[in-house]
Amino acid sequence: MPGADIKTFAPQEWRRWFAFLGGGFAWTFHLLSIYVVGEFGCVSGMDRNIYAGISMVAWMILILSAAALSIAVAAAFVGYRDKLHDKVQEIFSPEDDGGRFLSSFGFLLSSLFVLIIFVETLPVFAYLDGC
Amino acid sequence: MKPDELTEERFTQTWMSRPGLLGWLAEVNNRPLGVRYMITSLVFFAMAVVMALVMRTQLALPDNNLLAPDTYNAIFTMHGSTMLYLFAVPFVEGLGLYLIPLLIGARDVAFPRLTNFGYWMYLFGGLIFFASFLFGTVPDAGWTAYTPLSGPKYSGPGMDFWLLGLGLLEIAGITAAIEIVVTILKFRAPGMALANLPLIAWTYLVIGFMILFSFPVLLLATLLLELDRAFGFQFFNPDMGGSSLLWQHLFWWFGHPEVYIIFLPATGVISTIIPVFARRRIVAYPLILAALLITGFVSFGLWTHHMFATGLPELPMLFFTAASFMVALAAGIQIFAWIATLWGSRPHLGVPMLYILAFFYIFIQGGLTGVMVATMPFDWQTHETTFVVAHFHDVLIGGAVLPFLAGLHYWMPKISGRLPGELWDRVAVGIIFVGFNLTFIPLYVAGLFGMRRRIYTYPEDMGIGTFNLISTTGSYMLAIGFAVALASLLWSSRYGRPAPNDPWQGGTLEWSLASPPPPYGFRSIPVVRDLYPLWPVASGKPSVDPEAEDHYTRELNRVEAAMDCRPAAWRGTLVTDGINGRPLAVQSLPGPTLLPFWVAVVVTLATVFFLAQYYQASALAAMVALGMSFWWISREPVYDREEADMLVTRLRLPLLTTGKLSTGWCGLVGFLAVLFTVLAALIFSYFYLRLYSQQWPQGDIPLPQLGSAAPIFALLACAGVALLFSAWGWRHQRRTMLRLGMTASILLAIIFFCAQIRSLAAEPFLPSTNAYASIFLTLNGFVLLLTLVGVCLLIGTLARVIRKKDQLLDTRLVLWLQNSEMFFFFSVFSGLCGFLILYLVPHLL
């Protein structure tokens, strides 16, 4: 029975932690990597290599941003899915208050990090053809 | 005496501090040490305020010559350094060490001896800082110590006092962070899930992690600068391939998060006080928490916004502008949540609430000007002006000191057992608020008129004399306000009316205890299932399975009953699960001991010998400190076997645990996080120096020899593989495999150590040759040091394995095996990173 599956479903602990911290780690990866590419790429002259009208540095930043956004979106999605599963259950196990909290709060937190990563990527659009 | 009374008396005796001077030195209880931290930091605060007044007096009039330029430089350096390193961060730590166990229902913190050690390191570090006055060589390169001003060419020996004193302070900060993080994750009351963790405890959890990833970078930076100054290394000397900007990068990686490390606990204080005075639960708990975590992460993405005027490429700097805006968003979320909590309530305007209302005005002013200086064009105009001075005083005094004063007033009944006064405290709030704005609003204007900071005077024709005179008048008012507030608190703590348990009708756990709390804190470990355990349970809680609920509640209640006055003969507390607060084990905690104090004394001696340039004596003292540390961690936990057995039976929980469940394992993970941060900062330094060098290796130094280095590092890798076999051996109870693997690992690591030392000694350059040589030898030295410590740990573990030959699953031995393995694997990892970067990368890039 599908209902029984839902009731017995308990998100694994790693999913809870991924939902909770995935967005934050994606942001960390994003900022550090685009800073390194930005500074090292601009200083070393990598930005002079243009592909399809966009500099190599900008391409790398866009790719890294897409990767970071994907991780943050995935974390938010996992949090959302687990939150839904938790909600669908008619009754809760009292022993997993913290786990449920990690998922539902992780959805909120990782969603906010999606927004932050997006905003931090915006400056590159003013520097597509070089530093 | 009845048996119960006997147990209770024995229980109290077990937790009592020892009397006399020796007892004072050996104190390990978190509350006396927390108070000691706070009092010491307030003494330093008073000294820094006096220095501020001296500076403001000098600046009251144009072309004033009350202070010579050099004296002014020394005074502003010591003012800033004292406020940030000796007052703000230690105060935060002291408050945390005092409060956290009370808030989460623990009897003490996770590593009581480390608390004692941390306090002494803090005090001795502060004394070294101020000893520079006695020798007439006060540090004078600013609290940021920018190179090359702080380097050997332009600064006297005062900077050595600054750098080495700061090193000890950083160690104290890191110990407190590990302490706080592990305590919150492992010692929460049964049932206290993360969802029910008070916001102030969350702030401490967040800043604990922030300290672990930021303070080690400053520790490394100060060490590198001291190597430049003492031994002629060239990290920050541009003439020899070094980079002045490298210091700024390392410093601000620490420096910007540090502001939030001070600010976030202040927000925790506000989130605690507002609901109590508004008589309602905090609004938008998840949003405030999200804002906290976002600030914790994003504060690491702001360091370059202090470097907008250094000529870095524009594109990466814009990322930091964007990050700065995002932090403002997080701060805004908190402000609106607090306003929403107050909205519609009829808050009691007690003294703590008045401080918080003052906070709202000043902090918002500081936050808005923060957004202004986060935009590059504006920053270029106001950089190094008093506009920035006014901004960060808004943030640090308005954003942190005022909430801390609110917190001191709020928790004073709990700390001292006396009720704080009202009249003089209200007067103090008024004087502080008016004095603060009189001091700093004119500085915003003077800054826009172009008044430079860190310059001892200004000419009359700049037209900023009036602003400065008003500012100086305000600074005296502000100082009087602080003096009245602290004097009133001091007076009340001695002569105030006795305080009941809960004078504010607070909702958090500390108010369930007597004022002041008994030495053991909680007689039993209370069950906590709500954010405000002392208030009626909130409506809208999720419906739970009644049968499971009954079962779980019974289990928690049984644990609570079993822990009542138990264990009586030794210090014990409950270990719970990090997510749900489910009881896992009983842990024995150490009692008073002089060992941490002596280790701190020996570390300080090593520092003093270094300052005096007795380098061999310093190295010897450092080795002694390392040896004493091994002795420290080797000491067995003290517990009464009979009572332990009884308790284990009643609780149905184990005594001591291993792996992720144990505090020792978690503490080591924290320590490895510190080492990882140091390794990452060293690698960053290597690449940063490489980026700005035309030639790599610099000068006449040849490319490193991959062929001769590879076999040496292969030995280290083999040592790691041998340890893997050993680990397999103990997990499968194969004693021979365990011993052989461990012995092989030790031998291979020792051979690696000797071979690498020999190889480095044969290199045709010295660390002083150029920046490449400095970073090459320093990174190698870091790897060798880790290997040495790893080998010592393995030898200690092997000795235990041989001694306890029939008890391979003894909990304590398993913990030793797990921890020494983890450390050694980390040293192998560092070695391999070092090999790739130092020997392989130069051939590729």
In brief, what are we looking at here?
The complex is a heterodimer of chains A (131) and B (845). Chain A has 131 residues and is mainly alpha-helical.
Polypeptide structure, described:
The complex is a heterodimer of chains A (131) and B (845). With 131 residues, chain A is mainly alpha-helical. In chain A, 74% of the residues lie in helices and 3% in strands. Chain A has four helices and two strands. Chain A has helices at residues 2-8, 13-44, 56-88, 97-121; strands at 50-51, 54-55. A two-stranded antiparallel sheet of chain A has the order 1-2. The N and C termini of chain B lie far apart (79 Å). In chain B, strand 1 (572-576) and strand 2 form a beta hairpin. The longest helix of chain B has 36 residues, at 69-104. Chain B has 845 residues and is mainly alpha-helical. In chain B, helix 6 (158-186) packs antiparallel against helix 7 (199-231). The mean pLDDT of chain B is 93. Chain B has helices at residues 3-15, 20-25, 30-59, 69-104, 112-134, 158-186, 199-231, 244-278, 285-298, 314-342, 351-373, 376-382, 386-416, 423-448, 465-495, 546-562, 595-611, 615-634, 641-651, 663-691, 706-731, 735-761, 771-803, 811-844, and strands at residues 572-576, 583-588. A two-stranded antiparallel ribbon of chain B has the order 1-2. The chains are: A mainly alpha (131), B mainly alpha (845). The interface between A and B is large, with 43 and 46 residues.
